[in-house]
Amino acid sequence: MSLEPQELIHLESKIGRKPTKTELQIVAAEWSEHCSYKSSRIHLKMLPMTGPRVIFEKGFDSGILDVGDDYVVTIHIESHNHPSAVEPYGGAATGVGGVIRDILSTGTRPIAVLDGLRFGNIEKDSHARWLFKNAVMGIADYGNCLGIPTIGGEVEFDDCYTNYALVDVVAIGFGKKDRLIKNRAKKGDIVILLGGSTGRDGIGGSQFASNSLESDDRSAVQIPDPFIEKLIIEAILEARNQKLIKAMKDLGGGGLSCAISEIADSLSVGIELDVNKVHSREPNMNTDEIMTSESQERMLIITDKTKLEKLQEICNKFQIKCSVIGKVTSKKIMKVKKGKKSFANLPVSVVAHAPLLDRPAIKPKYLELIQKEKKFKTPKNLSNILLKILSSPNMANKNWVYGQYDHEVGIRTVVKPGHDASVLRLDNGKFLAVKLDGNPKQCYLNPREGAIGCFEEACRNVVCSGANPIGMVDHLQFGNPENPEIFWTFLESLKGLTDFAKYFKIPCVGGKVSFYNETPKGPIKPSPLICVLGLMDKKHHQLQTISNDDLIVLIGTTKNELGGSEYFEYTHNFVGGHCPVVDFKTSKANMNAVLELIKKGWIKVAHDCSKGGLACAVSELCMQTRIGCNISLEKIPSDKLFEDRLLFSESHSRYLLVLERKNLKQIQSFLERKTVLFNVIGKFVGDHILFQKDSKTVIKLSVDKAQKSWMNSLEELVLHG
Amino acid sequence: MTLFSQNSVPLYKVHIIIENKPGISDPEGDTILHDLVLKASFPSVSKIRSAKMLKFDIKEKNKNTAKKKIQKLCDELRIYNPMVSKLTVQVFEL
Asked: What is the pTM of this model?
């Protein structure tokens, strides 16, 4: 681990002397990109982070939203990309563990997990398959052992992730507002390390995540232990109930170095600790190793002396170790000792605040050329093409993935994975809808519009379940930020998200930035991931069964926006063109109209129209209900487009509504009043997915055949290559 | 001397042991140590490491090629992850 030369100069000028070896290690860990956000911090301020529901307390690691009746929901997102690319099982599992502890550290119980996964081309690349298979298994094993349901997520494959993996985890917590940990400390309070023992694993992990993979020795491997995590969760919640915790922080990247300096800085105190007191797994660990070890399943707790005994009792009961490792001091100094010998003596504000960077940004050259579109003839065999897209790894049903996750444990999950958004029941009778979305293919063509598109898509999904979006967390994943072109794509995405969040008044309550996602072939495509939370009052929108003769209404316009679509990339193997653009005003009008229709109970099902376009969205409904459809392409509100483009354009702000014929009139007049563009495009009938144009058949595909292929293709591919 | 006739290829038993590298934690071994062995009053035990063993029967020219073939197989088929695990290969003549 090391500092950049100019950072070393900065450090020396701040402390007025040369740092000791241990001090250098501590600062290098905390000043890594992973922990300090030194490239992104000055820009992240632009996101709107406040709102009527947002609760903010110093030192919180996760976002908190008030959901009424004295209850709060907490949410946090993290990635574990570098470790998962090296050891997918352990990397993905410990990724789940880390974000769950962030939820726990606010004093709320983790109630759900979602995962966003990205890998290389699993059709061609057996290494990508190996990564995929093991990452899913790691998530499943960890979440299932903890009894926390994995309620959804998304999976995508793209050549840009060859030899690499993006593993993003969102965790959601729930609790009473008055039980939130307030994060206070005063002189004389004691500092406790609780949970797993400290070993040599993961040393240098945060620095590892701040370097590109190929340049590293791949040494940071962490072993998951969900059983200790479960004990920690229960012990801490019991301690919380007995008010034994004054402040708390999870040990993540940077280990003790970061946890101590960050908590001391946010509470405006100093901490003095003795590494000899840390319960370690291996003999003869030196101070530097103990301070930077990223061993999993550890929590840092501050409490006062009178409560120590009770806390120890709880730890004994759950058979987890807890050691008093230090004390709180009034001088804002972080002091590290080994026995009597002092190893580090640094002002916490210096350690916790890396010199921030204002990196140069230049619009990448590729963006000018890539908008150009190749001319394709409209293919004749569109039925075949639809079948192929439906069974492609990106579009195929992901039951092989979520089938491994326990998504019902805790009996809160009322809408399970495989639908638009997942829905959780909360104790106050309300319902929480959650959706995670990303689209690197579109973000690559246009980082700003692509990121907005992900955000809108997540909102659309939440809206389709009948919930109002109340907050979001973002995870911005890019390549090396020292490259001005990559940094430009980061800034563009961030600006897009900011504009959308402000316009829709959806506060960003947390997030993460992950840079240096580089594969041997180059940087990954810009991969922002957005998770949107929606809230529903007492009654939740029950999905109703679709039956023969139900009508299909399409809201929104289908435009010539096929850049980054599955049709261009999977069928034609073409990367380029114009990616879909969200018109904020239309987006809002459509969103509000759909929400109102759901609340009125006039529609049976609302389904978002996105990846794979209208053709896939309609097919998904058919395959889920096993009823065919008859759609007239000339009725689709659209630009003048060829059939294939009408079918597969991925324009945003579009919704499919399924309704009973008797409700049509009132829905029509409602939508006309709201000046929302819509049309009845067809109905459910027969046993074929049928698309016609002026009564001529464009696509005719047996529902059974499509369904079989859609349901089984991913599993076939993973298990049998 | 071998039991086989001259034109038949000898059979070897190859055992591979896969365990977490030293220094990487082993929750399974720790759990057995703390929750079973020490609780049952065997205080002289100080460490337990868990491992997985696979036993192969393989026909090869000699001990060395048998060992090499199995090592190659484990590497190529990702029977273990060299980032995390240590592989020990033992060959026995039948």
From this structure: 0.92
